[in-house]
Amino acid sequence: MRTLISILVANALFMSGQAFAAANNTQADTQKMAELKQQLTDITEQLDELNSRVDKTERHTSLDRLEITGDFRTKAHSLHYRDVVWNPAINVNFNDFGAKAMSGVFGMPNDPNSPLGKMMQANPDLAAAFQNGMLQGVMPYVLAPKSVQDIDNDIFYTTRLRLNLKAKVWDNVSFAGRLSMYKNWGDSTGVQVFDSWRSFTMDGTSSGNTSGDWLRVERAYFDWKNINGSEFYLSIGRRPSTYGPPSHYRENELRGGTPSGHLVNFNFDGATLGYNLGELTGIEGQIVRFCYGQGFESQWGNGEMFGDIVTKDTHLGGFNIDAINDGTNFLQFTLFGAKDVNDGFKGTMAFPTQLAGIFAPTMYQDMQKFDNFNFVTRVQPSGVIGDMYLGGIGFAREEANDIKWFASLGWTRAEPNGNAGMFGGMLSDAVFEAELNSTGTEIIMVPKTSDDTDTKDGYGIYVGIQIPAPYGKFGLEYNYGSEYWTPFTQAQDDPIGSKLATRGHVGEAYYIFDINPKMFIKLAGLYYDYEYTGSGTPVGAPQKIDDVLAGSAYSMLPVVDKAFDVNASLTINF
User: Fold this and answer.
1) Residues 240 and 323 in one domain
2) What pTM did the predictor assign?
3) CA distance 397 to 284
4) pLDDT class for 59, splitting at 50, 70, 90?
5) In what order do the strands lie in the sheet with 376-379?
6) 528: domain range?
């Protein structure tokens, strides 16, 4: 089109020049004709240059509809664990066991080929206690001797790559997404040995667990703003529910997620309906949001035959309100619930050899021939264990002198329904009963109920300050979680475990050196002092760490008394 215009303009000027020359054939007119031709040449060159520039701009606009930014972080940790204790046991209803044994259901105890005879031969201490009438009521059945050790991982490297995607769909519609890779050096197996709840890779925590050298879709959603000219907006997709305030300060980045990072750092799929309330109240940044999501799908892709399921979908819903967000003060309220929480999620793990020796003796016989092998298995929950509710209030202030400080108070409530799987019910332990296996040749222990159905409330506090310092900034943070504190922050990428899910105390200090506006170095140290077991999971009754160390309490998975993480990282934004 622009080339055609150039030709038309040139022709018009040339024809005008010819007409002028025919009518005025004098020496002065000839000079004017030469000047006119030179002007025509200059105009043609300028139009050619303009055409080239416009064509490049149009090409750039058409090809770059998707904006891609990102960040790259490499990090070195020195991890140290003190008094790691493993003292596994299950609670067994020995009244039920005794009644079945006396009735002959398990065969005769003096018959070495009967299920009861085999069990007594394999467990002489159990046989002696049973014969002496010492096994009555619900009592712990110890599965392995207690062990205590210190563990040091002097150097642990990780790399994290995040690619942010943005696209303007229409005047009031946009798309956003984030692809994440998070791996430790020298490992892309994708699964970890199941020695803690942190190591269980699942949908909600995949972005915060080292998994391999591939990109995962951490976020993908659209925003539809000013619907029909109103202050309502709608957003649907994989939610921006990680690294929310005030946890973004320690990450040295802008607010990364919508909900409070003290309560939620967990990937989930869902929708948000929001309203810019500030247009009515006159309070800057005031937004009220209703959020809905699904944390677990029980039917599609489950591990049971079609339609033969015992789990339920887990649905999330609640409100997130930015009461003040004026660039200096930030005040947020959060309240939501999770209905039909199951005793786990779909996921993958490498089965620990030690647990195979306890729960899969036949398989363990073969595993001993390949003691450096772990079999990878896909797991899923065994049933619904209750409902959960979370709430909190958080305040942050950014002073004119660049000092930033915050305080957050969180509350969690668990309402168990009495069901339990192998690792327990909701904040309660399972009670096992003895049964024969399907072939009638072996006595197995089956979880039947939880040992406690009382509602349990937990609380957590989180405070911190960040101050300007030479070449950057210095920060201090502290958080505490009570016995039943159970937030959804398992996607936080702290290797020892989400510090904000800790049932106990965590202190952190860090120094951020700003290399340039797009690059920084961070030196940090975290110290964990656990008071109760089970940080980061609603499954199982929290036990005092001191009691587990003393041998008077038990835990199916190893627990840590104290730990510290000294780390250094380099981050670039592009």
Assistant:
1) yes
2) 0.87
3) 15
4) low
5) 201-202, 347-350, 376-379
6) 66-88+145-346+381-417+453-573
